[in-house]
Amino acid sequence: MADTTAPSTTAPTSTTTPGRRKAVSLTRTPTWAWALPPVLVLALGFLYPLALVVRQSFTPESLEDGGASLTPYTEVFASTVFREALTTTVWLAVGATVGCLVLGFVLALVIAFVPFPGGKAVARFIDVFLSFPSFLITLALLFIYGSVGMANGAWTGVTGAAEGPFHFLTTPWGVLLAEITYFTPFVMRPLLAAFSQLDTAQLEVASSLGAGPVRIVRQVILPEALPALAAGGSLVLVLCLNEFGIVLFTGAKGVTTLPMLVYSKAILESDYPAACVVAVVNIALSVGLYSLYRVVSRRAGA
Amino acid sequence: MLVHSRTGKWATWSAFALLFVPLFAVPLLVILAASFSTNWSGALPSGPTATRYTAATSGDSLQALTTSLVTALCASVLALVLGGWAALAASSLGRRGKRFLDALFMLPVAVPSVVVGLAVLVAFSRPPVLLNGTRWIVIIAHTVLVTAFAYQSVSAAARRLDPMYEQAAASLGASPARVLWRVRLPLLLPSLTAAAGLCFALSMGELSATMMLYPPDWTPLPVQIFAATDRGSLFTGAALAVVLMGTTLLVLTAVSRIRTRASYR
Predict the structure, then answer these.
(1) Across-strand partners of B46?
(2) I need a labelling partner for B105 at 20 to 30 A (CA). Which of A200, A216, A274, B3 fits?
(3) Residues of chain B positioned with their CB less than 8 A from the CB of A207
(4) CATH of the domain at A195
(5) Is the CB of residue B120 less than 8 Å from the CB of residue B214?
(6) Over chain B, what is the mean pLDDT?
(7) What's residue B265's pLDDT?
């Protein structure tokens, strides 16, 4: 980089990016002005609506014009529905993240280090999987484990019982299974990228010195994979906290998460101040975690 | 490499298959099989039929498909312009300006899509901008949601771009606009098309924000799938889902062909 000898008109080539760029964009408009139009559009389409949500959350219906009040917050925080939704959301997200990390690590390990014919195809399949919407998984699970699905049907067909043993789909466990299935590829992708940069000579050396596979995984591969695991895990945690389609499709009355609560308060009950309060809590939770994710993935040198 | 013995390898592979096949391959296959069957209450589906597809490609469902396609196309073009512009502008800023733009444009990923839907609904149901009940409100929400991915993809590519090309062009007297149009954008074309494909796929499958604000005359395909499964017709839902997946894959393949042609030029 430092030895670039491209003849530039004004600024001498320096190693810092701004200096190098200035040589190119020699206009009377300052560079930051070019960033203004997209920022303004985003502000209008995203920041302004968000600000209105926050404002609405402080305006109960009784004082529609002007005047802020904490009443919506105290009301929502006092309701058991909200507290249950908060705990359900958090434990589902944490559980799904742990599940995705374990499963994703094992699967990526096999694809990368015990290669088999068709492994490339599996990796491609995972990319395709990522481009499908999440609710398809719940739809498929309804066919497999639903009350009239194939698992229960096979059971009643074999045993002659009136109904099958699988009823977990409308409980939080069904949501957990769907979330682990859908989000595991989000962990596998960064892991596979990290594994492809790992020098296999390290494994050969460890192996020739007498380390078994378990020890190699624990002492050689795992330390290398930690940044990718941390980055993938925190992304999945945020995505699980925000997941809506999976929960909506199970149609379970018993499983209420924060996004589901926002939907039911706003659309089904038309209680906008309460919906906005839940939304603000959800934003705080997710954005807080997402900032953590950005810090972690920057540390990881992504 | 990790497991050397033959039996060990086979054991690992069968464990992998035991985890991978039921979790990832079976769900998609089940949807595909269900869409072709009339009834599925045993271990295997029964009654092969294609009538679901005649229903899924006519009337309301066809309208939902075109709605989804138009929404996804508009949202990805808008997102590409917005996100691409911001990413290019950010790449010529200093460290702090770049950080600011990064944080700003990646924020919609962190905010739950249901909340984005709620926010857009709250903001555009009141003066000065009244869009509630129109298709534009859906397109705005989708654009906001996918812009982050366009920004991320283009800014990652812009960071890897070799500045030599631009400097050479500029030193030969090309104006900044010409450098952008003839040097930077062609070099960024692969990442732009990749971003377009990603945005399109995400917008095609978007359900959360759409559920908050779709008007009755603009129901995208995911909403239609939910409506079908919610009223109990799972098989129609499966056929619609296959149509959705097929269309998404078709567009993604087409887009990736553009990319390979550009990168070999």
Answers:
(1) B39
(2) A274
(3) 4
(4) 1.10.3720.10
(5) no
(6) 85
(7) 47
